[in-house]
Amino acid sequence: MFSFAKKLVDRFEGGSPQDSLNGDSYFKNCLQFNNRGYGLRVVKVAPHSAAHQAGLESWFDYIVKINNHELPMTNPYVSNVQYSINEDGSINYGGQVTSEQAGAVNFDIINQEIATLAARNQPLVLDVWNAKGGLIRQVSLPLESSGMSSTGVTLQSQHLNTATYVWRILATHQGSPAFHSGMVPFSDYIIGCDSTYNDDVNGKGLLTAGGEALLSRTVSNYYNYHFSRTSNDNIPITFYVYNHDYDILRPVTVNLNRSWGHGHNRGILGCDVGYGLLHRLPEVVGKFKAESIVDDVLFDSKQSLEYQPNDGSTFMSPPPPTSEKTSTYSTAPPPLGAPHVDQSGSSSFVPPPPSARKKTRHTVASKASDIDSYMDEETEKSSKLDGHPTTVDDAKVIPPPPKA
């Protein structure tokens, strides 16, 4: 519903869906390069690796620049192709190019750059866009050998719009499967889903796409499929839930069933969710070091937060304390217009000099004379319009001018 309203507003404003996406501050200026919004998404970070020590986060981080250079796209001409966002969040290029072609990155050039830096004993500097609030920070990775694998990170080229595939928990109904699983309203976000059955070969990565209706459709299909196999009303499913208050990602197992409540439209999951612009992952303030942040929505990372006295301040410092005891209560102000008396007892009140401007006397004609003059003037105008002379002199014919 929200996506429909957004498209309707864009149409009335005369803009395209791509124009509204380019003006989204959540993505900063990342939609202006890398074929308009692609990045290397961090899908796995090896423990105790250089990427792990540098603070790279799987799923949330996207590498958008390497050593202050854009990513080497295999098909850079795609940046000139117009695209739109489908209801499921996928990129639609109108049949001119596929998403795989648009997001293809030349990893050979990246590995060559890493080998050159490793030979010079220089670190790898990355500009990383984070899905939590959409801020950009710089990460420096020390290189021990050539190749991106030496940093302990696994990457996959994806569009930054995939970071919006989140469903926010707004409410859990009493006694529902979501309620018993411990989901926290307004703080928990569902970002992924897997099957709990080992023999379910198609049950991995069930929420890799987006769309407002994808979660309910996936849960319903998953329940119907396994209920037809087991005839059991309790169907377990695993959600990957991110909690913003504690900044943690945890797996949550929910036993889906239809018998948890009474009445119609109670749902299998038993919770209300939000999706779209108003339910994106918010920023975790203070998570990253201020000097590493390149671009932030909430704060300017380059501004100094320390207090610095201003020499040109208009506030005066208080006078030094005196030995005499003074009352802490100020005296009431004198009444308006009262003379000020100093300590000597003489009045310093000086009356203002008289104004040199004289009042001009305005003569007002009587109402009767004004009415009579007005009536005479109107009578004369009416007579001229009717063609009747008002005086004898007007009736005489004016003689022609004398001849020379």
Automatic annotation (TrEMBL):
Its main location: Golgi. GO terms for biological process: Golgi organization. InterPro entries: GRASP55_65, GRASP_PDZ, PDZ_sf. Residues 308-404 are annotated as: Disordered. GO terms for cellular component: Golgi membrane. Coiled coil: none annotated. Keywords: Golgi apparatus, Membrane, Repeat. Gene3D superfamilies: 2.30.42.10. Residues 165-278 form the PDZ GRASP-type domain. Residues 380-396 have a biased composition (Basic and acidic residues). The keyword Membrane applies. This is PDZ GRASP-type domain-containing protein.
